[in-house]
């Protein structure tokens, strides 16, 4: 059996676990997690080859769990970062520790896996990165925020001129719809790219439309539902009615389809387009994930301390995670409210 076949066998086991097995997981991993594991393990095997181990010697996944082999691969990864422990290195060590029990490693090997994971652990991130805070700070200006909020309608109604044709106009309208949805539904880019017009856009018949994500759709297994504004629904309907055959074949059920209509766009492709479109139109650096941060910033600015609603808006499992990520975003409105309180107190007579 080849290394690739052995790896796929392990991933199949993780995606279809035996609930009665003494070792291993009782719950199946999501497809996105399986894909991530595949990339991490293949990348690690590649690092071993770069360290000098012949590719022909890596005959199975089991080979990677040997303590000396695992240490060699991790050291190779560290050599690329001047021995700085990065998130990728930490996650790799943790992955092998977590897979140790699933693959039936001995107690001695499990102890080595745990040692590597502990030594290469990184402190959990507290709050947003400095880069994201700087990007949000630009949007705290009311004029900048209005430019972003009005961008979807502008792009949809007035696509860029010049070399525009049916296809490029369609791309612009797709991007407009994507940005419009992210502004009112701060979902992850994978969920956005995978929107199915029949499965995820529900129309109960009262004139309203909802974006509905099931437990299987979301990262943490929690269903989410957003009512779509009338303008967003109108944009979707107008685009879907006119996009064929320039964008995709008739009957394509995906909101953001591949051009052959056989599936949705890759989330990375849609994310790149959104970032480039916003940058070109406004000059702002806003990636797809920043819309989630932006949603919380707007909410906490209007409702300081209302983290429970922010948690539900983002679909977090625990409010503590939301507080850890976004504490401080409401400082602007909180300090403004406090200043107003002092002014009010100053105006009172004793």
Key words describing this protein structure:
mainly alpha, hpI Integrase, Chain A, 2 domains, three-stranded antiparallel β-sheet, 15 helices, globular
Report a brief summary of the structure.
With 350 residues, the protein is mainly alpha-helical. The chain is 57% helix and 3% strand.
Q: How would you describe this protein?
A:
With about 350 residues, the chain is an all-alpha fold. The chain folds into two domains: about 120 residues, no CATH class; about 150 residues, hpI Integrase, Chain A. A three-stranded antiparallel sheet has the order 1-2-3, with no helix packed on it. The termini are far apart.
> What is the number of helices?
15
Which class do the helix and strand fractions yield? mainly alpha
Overall tally of structural domains: 2
The amount of beta strand, in percent, is: under 5%
Question: Overall pLDDT, averaged?
Answer: 91
N-end to C-end Cα span: 87 Å
CATH class of the largest domain: Mainly Alpha
Fourth CATH level, the homologous superfamily of the largest domain:
Intergrase catalytic core
Helix content: 55-70%
The biggest sheet, with number of strands, parallel, antiparallel or mixed sense and barrel status, is: 3 strands, antiparallel
> What best-fitting shape do the alpha-carbon axes yield?
globular
CATH topology of the largest domain: hpI Integrase, Chain A
Known CATH architecture of the largest domain: Orthogonal Bundle
Q: How many whole angstroms does the radius of gyration measure?
A: 24 Å
Order of helices and strands: HHHHHHHHHEEEHHHHHH
User: Taking strands numbered 1, 2, ... along the chain, how are they ordered across the largest sheet?
Assistant: 1-2-3
Unreliable sequence segments: none
